[in-house]
Write a structure and sequence with these properties.
mainly alpha; Growth Hormone, Chain: A
Length: 464
């Protein structure tokens, strides 16, 4: 993609109708240009950075949580849709699979765009489109229409993470990125936890409200994002964040934004990024198999009511918040930013917890809550740290692309956590489903062991 020029005089020939439309589309998502330095006092710069970093962190957390409101609401509706519409588990699983695969591809494609686009416009546009598609889904009744709408939702969901990756790597230095991005990653669990609690109550008034109510909340959040997100420090007249460049950093950024060999070197030829990407496939298989099917597992195999199943699933997500914060801090404090080492410990512990959940079935609610909390605590460590690790390895100039690559592998997992899991359980029961999750958890542990010696970041060799 060619570098977008902010000078109207240098735009393509506007007298031609064929040239004018692409130019307008590119301008819609054009990054904010660097502004003149208006603050030069170091104390004032530090103060402004502190204020804006808090604002950016909160806004991106709210925004990404809102994406989950119009993505993870389906899991609560599934048991009711199964009865009301006569949809089989394998059909519902196919919804999850197609949505996930398309989301993964979209996350990668939009990741390459996200490195070069205005973060505010990109994120708000995607959220509004997802809310609109959820409203359309709520009005639908046929499997074909629902499938098409949910696939489109998967594509536009891919516009959520790339602008967040761009913002976080531009506003925070690599030495604290694991801690700050782990804090940001709690937005996954906050959004998913809140929406399953909300929908656990809303579904009692009809499954269609599971899509209408979250959509309204998402649209309100989109308005908040529009007024809160700022693109880059340079666009506000602030200096480049420390530790991510030197005196020629602006020239470097301009060069890398138009030179595809930079992404080839930083992302596609980096073996550790590929290890993290494949490991992410197994992490997401386990994570989504647990989350997406928990309301069904807990109500059908553990005897809980759907309302209580929603709360227990939320406990899984809430525990994930503590896991992400804990393991992000551990990564910076004890492993000098080497996320692969923390991921190995987390995945091994998750495998042990999954073995217990599988082999000790009980209808005891207390035990079920405890084991679900342990699963959430450990699986969300690598879920957060994979993105942080590859973002640091790729540097801020290619962070969204690297995270997009891991996203493809992560959401290809829905072939097994969605359709595959549903079909397996439909034919062989829940025992076979647990067996699948356990094997995938072991595979993820082995791959993270191969990433033990991965460096903490790629800025030391970023000398183009």
């Amino acid at each position: 993609m060619a570098r977008m020029n902010s000078d109207p005089a240098s735009a393509p020939n506007s007298s031609s109708g064929t040239a004018q439309s692409p130019s307008l589309l590119l301008r819609l998502f054009q990054p904010d240009p660097p502004a003149a330095r208006t603050i030069t006092d170091p104390i004032a710069v530090a103060s402004e950075y502190r204020r804006l970093r808090i604002q950016i962190l909160i806004a991106t957390m709210v925004g990404y949580a809102a994406y989950y409101f119009v993505r993870k609401n389906l899991s609560i509706a599934m048991p009711v849709m199964e009865k009301d519409l006569g949809i089989k588990k394998s059909d519902l699983g196919l919804f999850l699979t197609l949505h996930g695969v398309i989301y993964g591809v979209s996350k990668f494609c939009n990741g390459m765009l996200g490195d070069r686009c205005n973060a505010r416009m990109f994120m708000v546009t995607g959220l509004v489109l997802c809310a609109g598609l959820n409203i359309a889904f709520g009005f639908s009744s046929t499997i074909t229409a629902m499938g098409l709408i949910w696939m489109l939702n998967g594509w536009f969901q891919g516009m959520g993470f790339p602008p967040c990756a761009r913002l976080l790597t531009h506003w925070f230095p690599p030495k604290v990125l694991a801690t700050r991005m782990s804090l940001w990653n709690t937005s996954h669990s906050i959004g998913a936890g809140l929406v399953v609690i909300l929908c656990g109550y809303v579904v009692g008034y009809g499954w269609r409200n599971v899509f209408f109510v979250p959509s309204a909340i998402a649209l309100l959040c989109a308005a908040y994002l529009w007024y809160s997100i700022k693109d880059t420090p340079e666009s506000l007249g602030l200096p480049e964040v420390e530790g991510t460049g030197g005196t020629n950093s602006t020239t470097h950024q301009e060069k890398s934004s138009r030179d595809s060999s930079y992404w080839m070197k930083r992302v596609f030829l980096n073996p550790y990024i590929w290890i993290f990407a494949v490991a992410n496939f197994f992490v997401y298989t386990v994570r989504y198999a647990i989350f997406d099917w928990s309301p069904s597992i807990l109500s059908q195999a553990r005897g809980l009511s759907l309302k209580n199943a929603g709360w227990v699933t939320a406990a899984f997500e809430i525990s994930g918040i503590f896991g992400m914060l804990t393991f992000g801090w551990i990564t910076d404090r004890f492993f000098a930013g080497r996320g692969g080492r923390t991921c190995l410990l987390c995945m091994a512990a998750c495998t042990a917890a999954l073995f217990v959940f599988w082999n000790y079935p009980t209808k005891n609610v207390g035990f079920t809550v405890v084991i679900m909390c342990l699963l959430g605590f450990f699986i969300y460590g690598p879920q957060a740290l994979v993105g942080i690790a590859v973002a640091n390895l790729a540097t801020k100039h290619a962070a969204a692309t690297a995270v997009g690559l891991t996203g493809i592998f992560g959401y290809l997992s829905t072939i097994f956590s969605g359709w595959g899991f549903g079909a397996l359980v439909e034919r062989h029961g829940w025992h076979a489903g647990f067996q699948e999750m356990f094997v995938f958890s072991i595979a993820g542990t082995v791959l993270f062991a191969l990433a033990w010696f991965a460096p903490s970041h790629g800025y030391a060799t970023d000398n183009r």
